[in-house]
Specification:
Helix content: 55-70%
Order of helices and strands: HHEEHHHHHHEHEHHHEH
Number of domains: 3
Low-confidence stretches: 155-159, 194-198, 210-232
Distance between the termini: 65 Å
Length: 256
């Protein structure tokens, strides 16, 4: 079976299956046709993928699973290490749960006070994986879907969606538009993450690739600094509710 079928059978993503393959946990049969390598997954491979994913959910590290594959005699020792790690995580989560239920924490006046109350209890815990890795495809897909929803709305429907009232690279104009809309009480939202932030973030990712930095003739630190400091890369967007579009344009014309 192909990787798509293996993913369907196991409930794993294709990316996860490739990761397990790269780490040597599953090795599909390979054949070459017309210069391309084709992978074929058998029932035994599906069984292995299911076993690996179960152990990963049970807090086993990839290296520990690999060690057990090489030598099953390691199972008791590995189980003790995993149990100790789970105990530490359980203890940390228990402390966090108790902190979350304290009366003085419940009465925290703002976000900063809340974070300070939880800082010590949260310190042993790791950030979620999605906070540590950029997912530009997901971001682009979300923006494209939202744009399609706004632009594709029927002309007679003004109660749904958002419409761009200003988009550009002038921070001064960007601020002026916001102030004018606020003055007229028009609901609006600001999207200022855009090009500059994306390129800066992508630069940090690309900086790990020596070939990229050599081609750009920039040091890793230099490229990061350039991307993060170049104001010409920044762009701004202000959106208003579709129902308020005409009112917003009148407000901006009167403020010109």
């Amino acid at each position: 079976m192909r990787i798509k079928e293996a993913a369907r059978r196991t409930g794993l993503t294709e990316k996860t299956i490739r990761y397990y393959e790269n780490r040597g946990l599953v090795i599909p049969d390979k054949s070459e046709r017309n210069g391309r390598v084709w992978r074929n997954y058998t029932e035994e491979h599906v069984r292995m993928l299911q076993a690996v994913s179960t152990l990963r959910r049970a807090c086993f590290h990839v290296e520990e699973i690999s060690g057990i594959l090489e030598d099953p005699v390691r199972i008791p020792e590995t189980l003790r290490e995993v149990a100790e790690r789970v105990e530490e995580t359980y203890a940390a989560l228990t402390r966090l749960r108790e902190q979350l239920r304290r009366e003085d924490v419940l009465r925290s006046p703002d976000l900063f006070a809340l974070a300070e109350e939880l800082r010590e209890a949260a310190a042993p815990l790791a950030l979620p994986p999605q906070d540590l890795k950029f997912n530009f495809r997901a971001m682009d897909r979300s923006l494209a879907e939202e744009k399609k929803q706004v632009e594709g709305a029927p002309s007679g429907v003004f109660r749904f969606g958002w419409v761009v009232i200003y988009k550009g690279q002038s921070e001064e104009r960007f601020q002026a538009v916001q102030e004018r809309l606020a003055l007229f009480g028009i609901e609006h939202r600001v999207l200022s993450f855009t090009t500059g932030n994306r390129l800066a973030a992508q630069g940090l990712v690309n900086a790990a690739n020596p070939a990229f930095t050599q081609r750009a003739q920039l040091s890793t630190a230099g490229m990061q600094a350039r991307l993060l400091s170049d104001k010409r890369m920044d762009s701004y967007t202000v959106e208003v509710r579709k129902r308020d579009e005409e009112k917003a344009r009148m407000a901006l014309r009167s403020g010109a």
